[in-house]
Amino acid sequence: MASKTKLFKNVIINSLIFVYLSIVGFSLFNYRSHCVFTSPSTLLRLPHLDKSDNGKCRVDLDKLELIKVDIFTAPEFDFILEKNHHVKKGGVSKPVGCSALQKVAIIVPYRDRLHHLKILLNRLHAMLVKQLIEYRIFVIEQSGLDKFNRGKLMNIGYLEALKFGDFDCFVFHDADLLPENDQNLYMCDQHARHLSSAIDEMRYHVMYYNYAGGVIAINRENYQRINGYSNFYWGWGNEDDDLSARIQETGLLITRPPESIGRFKMVRHAKLSRAEHGNELFFGWRGRWPEDGLNDIVGMNYTVLHFSDEPLFTNITVNIGSRPKTMPNHDSTQESLFWFLKFYYP
Ligand SMILES: *[C@@H]1O[C@H](CO)[C@@H](O)[C@H](O)[C@H]1NC(C)=O
Ligand SMILES: *[C@@H]1O[C@H](CO)[C@@H](O)[C@H](O)[C@H]1NC(C)=O
C-alpha cells in the first residue's frame, strides 16, 4: 500500500516537472524567436551609420544614468523652457558641434492630459539633449468626443511629421510614460525597438513577450513596410498588439533595452474606456492588415484643424472622423485559439 502511494507521488512529481520544463522550454523558444534584448550601445554602431563617420555625434553612455523622476508635480511651460534653452519653437532641438546620428520625430497621441504633457515634456527635453539627438516633438491631438483612436493618431503623426523634415526614426510615445534612464537612447535600429521594456505599473517587466505598447521606435522604411498601425481600434487596447503582429509577420524582431535601462514610470490617471470588440478585431487582424493602415484612404481620412509651433512642442489638432457604425467582418481570416494563446504567452 505504502509503495503504491509512493509510486503515485513520483508519477505526479515527475509529470509536474515535465510540464514545468515544457512550459519553460516553450517560453524560451517562443520568446527568442521574436524578441531580443540589445544594449543601447548597438544603436551607436549600426552599420549604415558608419559610412559617414566624420563629425557625427558620439554619446558617451557611461556618462548617462538613472534619474529620479517626479511623476507628481507638473512644472509650468515657462519653467521647462527656462531649464531647456536648447529647445527651439515647435519643440525642436539638435546637438551643437556635431551632427546627430538620426533625426527623430517623437509622436505623442493626445487628448486632454495637460498635466501629463507638462511632466513628459520636462523630462524628454532634458533627456534628449544629453543623448545628442536631433528631434522634434509632435503632439497629435484628437478633437471631438469619440473614443480615442491611438493607432490612427500615430499614423497621422507619422505623415504630418514628414511634412516637417526628413526624419529617419519615429518614436511613438504615450503621454503618460516617463523614461527613467538617460541611457535609453531614443533611436531606431533595423527592427522595431520597444523602448518601454520595464514599466513600473508592470513591476518593471514586460507583461507578455509580444507587448509593443507604451513607447516604440520604428524607422521610416519599416513603418512603411508594416503599413503603420491599424486605424480600426477606437478606445483603449489591442491596437498595440495588432502592431506587434504586423512587426513579426514582416519578419522584424522586437528589440528591447535591458530592463534596467528600459525603465519607465507611469503617471496615474483614470483608465480610458476599452475598445469595443478589441479582441475580436485583433482575432481578424491578418485579413485587414493589407488595406488597414497608412495606405487606407478611407480609414486615414482626417483634417488638420489647427497647427502651431508652441515653445516646447508642435501642436497638430486633427478631426479624425468618427467610429464606423459596423464592425469589419473578416471571419475567414480569424486566428486560431492556439495562435492567440501563444501571442499572449507571458
Ligand atoms: C472624409 O471625411 C469627410 C468628412 O467626414 C467626408 O466628407 C469625405 O467624403 C471623406 N472622404 C473619404 C475618402 O472617405
Ligand atoms: C492645440 O491647439 C488647439 C487649438 O488651438 C487647442 O485647443 C489645444 O489645447 C492645443 N493643445 C495643447 C496640448 O496645447
Structure description:
There is one protein chain. This protein has 346 residues and is α/β, with parallel strands linked by helices. It has a single domain (28-49, 57-343), classed as Spore Coat Polysaccharide Biosynthesis Protein SpsA, Chain A. It is built from 10 helices and 13 strands. The chain has helices at 2-34, 47-50, 77-83, 114-130, 150-161, 220-225, 239-249, 278-283, 285-288, 337-343, and strands at residues 35-37, 92-93, 103-110, 134-142, 169-173, 177-179, 192-194, 198-199, 215-219, 254-256, 263-266, 303-309, 314-319. The strands form 2 sheets. Strands 1, 2, 3, 4, 5, 7, 9, 10, 12 and 13 form a 10-stranded mixed β-sheet that branches. α4 links the parallel β3 (103-110) and β4 (134-142). The chain is globular and about 80 Å long. The two termini are 41 Å apart. Keywords: Glycoprotein, Glycosyltransferase, Membrane, Signal-anchor, Transferase, Transmembrane, Transmembrane helix. Residues 67-189 form the Galactosyltransferase N-terminal domain. The chain crosses the membrane at residues 12-31.
